[in-house]
């Protein structure tokens, strides 16, 4: 694969941009648009910029810089004439960057083979670049199409920081082009030229340009190695509970090579040993053992090792340092198969330890007399461990916001090992070893290693082998949250579902910002009318009998694809606490929907889980006959066959209506889920196969 590389150089080694952590890809895009707007740019260059705005955010390399002295200016408002003298000035601060003028700012995009012509247009546009940001920042640019190897060599020797877009990071959030950025910039320019209306009396602000916001974090380069037999005939399977020993021996072997080739000072800087002064983390090599993962029965022995290489160390030097390094009966060779690495780096909401984390608080191990801990002591120990996990995440610079933390001694996976077994014959105390599972509000990318032993093979984390997936049933995406705790006795199923609806709408609105919630979520059209088609609306169910909440998200809404479905699914999936008033403060956890779930089965006999609420009724009629007729009308509305209705019980709630527990029998098999009655959008009239 090739890369499109744009190098921007300044005439002076200074930059005056404000508002973002570094000169963003959006600034470069604006500079390219300005370059193509001078004179008569060929149409192909405009098409190339339209192609560029659709690409994934680029990797960015920044020269090392220092901040200059801040200068505060007071600038008159545009409407200064209408205000008193003390109110007409706005405070604006400038603080320039100073850097080596010979070092360029680098922006690098991935490039498919069939996109070369579009990239050529960007290369031509870059030749016309004349400023970068403010008018005082005069600059020029060159763009090239290069091979991956050349880009790797460029970044390996680059005298600065390399930043990559990273899910879950909050280190540096900047603007990047998105689809529509070019047209929004052109529209803004046109509006600025005509922003004074009605003979100069009306000032109209130009619309903002459209850009996306993306988080960037420092790039970390990784090399993957295999533990090969000395004769090269296959893998060496290193026991997972000896992960720390493996890393220790690799460090010792690599340190000996470093000391011999570059001296003790360099060795101590790159690979400090236990009793030596600590060196900056950004200068160190670090190692992560990669236990095999694939399915529940996979033997989690270690056959591979990843080495994190600091930016200040050329990759070729790191490869030389570790290649053919002997570790007992094994030696390190470059990995031929890199399929295991994505299983430790893919973005995920949930992360769990494969090797236990070493946390600060010590727990009391139960003595051989079998004296057990009481529940209070166990809860205190686990709470202290959860607090230590928060600190460990901060120390490891994991940027995601944790919403749920679980700790235990037992492994999370079927063939894993208990936490205390990993501490045998190591410097770590077994009382401090914990298996940890963390759920974040947003997906986080790996690799992730936490705790005191994260540089020694401990605290290595990975996404679960099977994340709970969204299952599609008859055109609806079904998401399930398990109720773990907090549900009050006697809670109303429709009351819980209504609290869930309000919380979900609030969380979705937060994700959408100023955009209005679509009708399929609210249930109401813009004119206030109710959406009549139930299958085009979001349905929420509280199945308290099975201690769970469900969301049925429609695939299509009113003949068109539903808007913001992903936002609703993400908002629901990451909900870990629901405050439902009298229903309790409910703790939730995402789980998968079973294939043989009784709510989604097919059958002829069905019984209500949540009572049916009569939709319409006439006073004075026989109650059971009224319910039977109303149920048949409700079934016809849902395009179900006419059932035989058996009313098991009834109740009347003043101000609400008539409730009934039912048994329905159909002449043919009917597939669930079945929701009937006036409260069906909140899980009322929910039936299960009987």
> For the largest beta sheet, what order do the strands appear in spatially?
9-1-8-3-10-14-11
Q: How would you describe the shape?
A: globular
Low-confidence stretches: 557-561
- What is the typical, i.e. mean, pLDDT? 83
For the record, give the distance between the C-alpha atoms at the N and C termini, rounded to a whole number. Answer: 57 Å
How much helix, percentage-wise, in residues?
10-25%
Largest sheet: 7 strands, antiparallel
Quantity of strands, as a count: 39
What is the count of DSSP helices, taking H or I runs of 4+ residues?
14
Radius of gyration: 31 Å
Query: Strand-residue fraction?
Result: 25-35%
Structural class: alpha+beta
Task: Explain what this protein looks like in three dimensions.
- This protein is α+β, with helices and mostly antiparallel strands.
- 24% of the residues lie in helices and 31% in strands.
- The chain is built from 14 helices and 39 strands.
- Strands 9-1-8-3-10-14-11 form a seven-stranded antiparallel beta sheet.
- Strand 32 and strand 33 form a beta hairpin.
- Helix 2 packs across helix 3, helix 6 runs antiparallel to helix 7 and helix 11 crosses helix 13.
- The radius of gyration is 31 Å and the shape is globular.
- About 1% of the residues have low confidence.
């Amino acid at each position: 694969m090739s890369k499109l590389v744009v190098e921007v150089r300044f005439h002076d080694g200074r930059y005056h941009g404000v508002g973002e952590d570094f000169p963003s890809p959006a600034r470069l895009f604006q500079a390219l648009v300005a370059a193509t707007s001078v004179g008569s740019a060929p149409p192909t260059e405009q098409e190339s910029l339209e192609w560029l705005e659709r690409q994934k955010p680029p990797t960015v390399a920044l020269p090392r810089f220092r901040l200059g002295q801040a200068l505060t200016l007071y600038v008159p408002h545009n409407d200064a004439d209408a205000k008193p003298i003390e109110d007409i000035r706005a405070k604006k601060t400038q603080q320039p960057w100073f850097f080596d003028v010979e070092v360029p700012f680098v922006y690098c995009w991935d490039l498919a083979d069939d996109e070369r012509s579009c990239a050529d247009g960007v290369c031509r546009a870059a030749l016309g670049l004349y400023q970068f940001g403010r008018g005082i920042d005069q600059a020029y640019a060159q763009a090239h199409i290069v091979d991956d190897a050349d880009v790797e060599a460029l970044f390996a020797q680059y005298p600065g920081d390399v930043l990559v877009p990273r899910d879950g990071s909050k280190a540096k959030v900047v603007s990047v082009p998105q689809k529509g950025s070019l047209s929004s910039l052109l529209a803004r320019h046109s509006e600025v030229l005509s922003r004074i209306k009605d003979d100069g009396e009306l000032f109209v602000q130009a619309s903002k340009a459209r850009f996306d916001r993306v988080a960037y974090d420092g790039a970390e380069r990784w090399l993957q190695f295999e533990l090969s037999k000395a004769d090269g005939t296959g893998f060496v399977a290193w026991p997972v509970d000896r992960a720390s020993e493996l890393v220790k021996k690799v460090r010792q072997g690599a340190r000996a090579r470093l000391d011999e080739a570059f001296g003790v000072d360099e060795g101590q800087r790159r690979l400090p040993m236990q009793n030596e002064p600590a060196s900056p983390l950004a200068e160190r090599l670090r190692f992560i053992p990669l236990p095999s993962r694939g399915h529940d029965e996979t033997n989690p022995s270690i056959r591979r090792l990843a080495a994190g290489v600091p930016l200040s160390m050329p990759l070729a030097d790191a490869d030389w340092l570790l290649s053919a390094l002997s570790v007992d009966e094994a030696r390190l060779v470059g990995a031929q198969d890199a399929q295991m690495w994505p299983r430790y780096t893919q973005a995920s909401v949930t992360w769990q330890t494969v090797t236990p984390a070493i946390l600060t608080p010590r727990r009391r191990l139960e003595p051989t007399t079998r004296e057990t801990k009481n529940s209070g002591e166990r809860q205190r120990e686990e709470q202290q461990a959860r607090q230590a996990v928060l600190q460990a995440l901060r120390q490891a610079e994991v940027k995601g916001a944790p919403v749920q933390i679980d700790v235990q001694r037992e492994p999370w996976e079927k063939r894993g090992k208990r936490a205390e077994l990993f501490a045998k014959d190591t410097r770590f105390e077994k009382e401090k070893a914990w298996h940890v599972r963390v759920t974040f509000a947003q997906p986080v990318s790996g690799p992730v290693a936490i705790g005191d032993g994260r540089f020694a093979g401990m605290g290595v984390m990975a996404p679960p082998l099977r994340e709970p997936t969204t299952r599609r049933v008859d055109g609806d995406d079904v998401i399930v949250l398990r109720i773990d705790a907090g549900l009050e006795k006697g809670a109303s199923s429709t009351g819980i579902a209504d609290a869930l609806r309000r919380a979900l709408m609030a969380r979705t609105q937060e994700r959408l910002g100023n955009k209005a919630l679509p009708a399929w979520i609210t249930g109401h059209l813009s004119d206030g009318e109710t959406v009549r088609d139930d299958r085009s609306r979001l349905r929420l169910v509280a199945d308290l009998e099975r201690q769970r909440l469900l969301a049925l998200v429609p695939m299509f809404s009113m003949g068109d694809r539903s808007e913001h479905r992903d936002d609703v699914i993400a908002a629901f999936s990451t909900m870990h606490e629901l405050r439902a008033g009298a229903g309790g403060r409910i703790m939730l956890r995402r789980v998968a929907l079973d294939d043989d779930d009784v709510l989604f089965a097919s059958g002829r006999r069905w019984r209500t889980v949540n009572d049916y609420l009569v939709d319409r009724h006439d006073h004075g009629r026989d109650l059971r006959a009224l319910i039977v007729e109303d149920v048949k009308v409700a079934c016809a509305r849902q395009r179900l066959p006419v059932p035989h209705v058996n009313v098991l019980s009834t109740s009347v709630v003043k101000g609400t209506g008539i409730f009934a527990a039912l048994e329905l029998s159909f002449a043919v098999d009917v597939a669930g889920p079945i929701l009937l009655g006036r409260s069906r959008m909140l899980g009322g009239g929910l039936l299960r196969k009987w």
